[in-house]
Design a protein that fits this description.
The protein is α/β, with parallel strands linked by helices. The chain has a domain at 45-262: Leucine-rich repeat, LRR (right-handed beta-alpha superhelix). The protein has helices spanning 205-211, 233-241, 265-299; strands at residues 2-12, 25-28, 31-39, 50-54, 62-64, 78-82, 85-88, 99-100, 102-106, 109-110, 122-123, 135-139, 142-143, 164-166, 188-190, 195-197, 215-216, 221-224, 254-257, 261-264. Strand 19 and strand 20 (261-264) form a beta hairpin. It starts with a strand and ends in a 43-residue tail after the last helix. The chain crosses the membrane at residues 268-289.
């Protein structure tokens, strides 16, 4: 499919530098106007369609965007903008790219950024591509005038698919309560180099990341109050704000046992039956031992006092009755009388 494309980007270049323009583009008074005819059906499906805009470094790569700067460029999968110094970034600056697999701003700086500058740009992993990414990256970009002095509550309201958020080395001292509530896919947060103003309200995120399975991968230290200067936010929160265990925060109601642990009703039931079973087994063992002793005592009741048993007479000492056969080992003496040999 052939597309007629018009790309207009305002670039302020040094007057002493030679202007190099790509084929299909014209240049006049700092404005490049490019009119292309692209046949997208000839694209190699083994490679993502990628657009790279690399500005001249050394102060010659100033760029001003408009809402229609990238009209008809929605067929690109990966977008890279390198070393560009944006003098302005109005609302919907990149909306004409639509949904992309990868978008990055690398180097350069950004000034006068509208809060809706990224409105209309969707970054989503494209499983049909050889390298599905679903990644938005800002690498070594200077935010003029020096970072984020404050974080608006709705700053991440449309970033529902972001999994990793890095806000390192910014001048803000706290973030609004529940700012991550609109980011269900968030799994990792880094906020290194922040001078935290430590209060129980400002450190709400400590409980939030723990309760929502989010990894907080950076160190965090307090600047205020002065009594906690240089100490970790964890130290402040655990000593000042921690009110014990949150036994009602789980899916199953639980009971707080003196701030030591939380036990659900099912766990308590199991432990009670285990204790009853232990004592029951002990009682059964004691009863078995007692019964065995009683049976042993009853077996010896027929013995005479003193432990002496009656003697049995040896058969060879008993005189045989008349007419009876002599026992083995006896002989008949003369005269017909029989005596037993001792």
């Amino acid at each position: 499919m052939a597309l007629r494309l018009l790309l207009t980007v305002v670039c302020l270049v040094g007057m002493t530098s030679a202007v190099t323009k790509p084929t299909g583009c014209s240049y006049s008074l700092g404005v490049f106007t490019c009119d292309y005819s692209v046949n997208t059906s000839s694209f190699d499906i083994n490679y993502p369609a990628e657009l790279t805009i690399q500005c001249q470094t050394g102060g010659g790569g100033l760029m001003t965007l408009a809402a229609d700067s990238f009209t008809n460029l929605g067929y690109y999968n990966n977008i890279r903008i390198i070393n560009c110094e944006f003098t302005a970034m109005p609302a919907s600056s990149f909306a004409n790219f639509g949904t992309v697999n990868y978008f990055s701003l690398e180097g350069g700086n950004m000034d006068n950024v509208d809060k809706d500058a990224l409105l209309g740009l969707n970054v989503q992993k494209d499983s049909a591509l050889p390298t599905p990414l679903g990644e938005f990256a800002m690498i070594d970009v200077d935010l003029v005038p020096g970072g984020l002095p404050a974080v608006p509550l709705d700053m991440f309201s449309t970033t529902t698919m972001v999994t990793k958020l890095t806000l390192d080395n910014n001048p803000f001292t706290y973030i609004p309560d529940n700012i991550f509530g609109s980011m269900p896919a968030l799994g990792q947060v880094s906020m290194a180099g922040i001078n935290w103003e430590c209060t129980c309200n400002n450190l709400w995120w400590r409980d939030y990341v723990n309760s929502n399975g989010i990894s907080f991968i950076s160190p965090s230290t307090c600047t205020l109050p002065t009594s906690f200067y240089g100490q970790s936010t964890y130290s402040y929160y655990s000593r000042v704000c921690d009110n014990g265990l949150d036994c009602d925060g789980g899916k199953v109601p639980a009971v707080d046992f003196g701030g030591v642990t939380c036990l659900t009703a099912l766990q308590i039931t199991i432990y009670v039956f285990a204790i009853l079973g232990f004592f029951g087994a002990g009682a059964a063992l004691g009863l078995a031992i007692h019964t065995k002793r009683q049976i042993g005592g009853a077996g010896g009741a027929g013995a005479k006092p003193g432990g002496m048993r009656p003697k049995r007479m040896s058969s060879n000492r008993i005189k045989n009755a008349p007419g009876s056969k002599p026992p083995n080992g006896t002989a008949r003496p003369p005269g017909g009388s029989r005596k037993a040999f001792n």
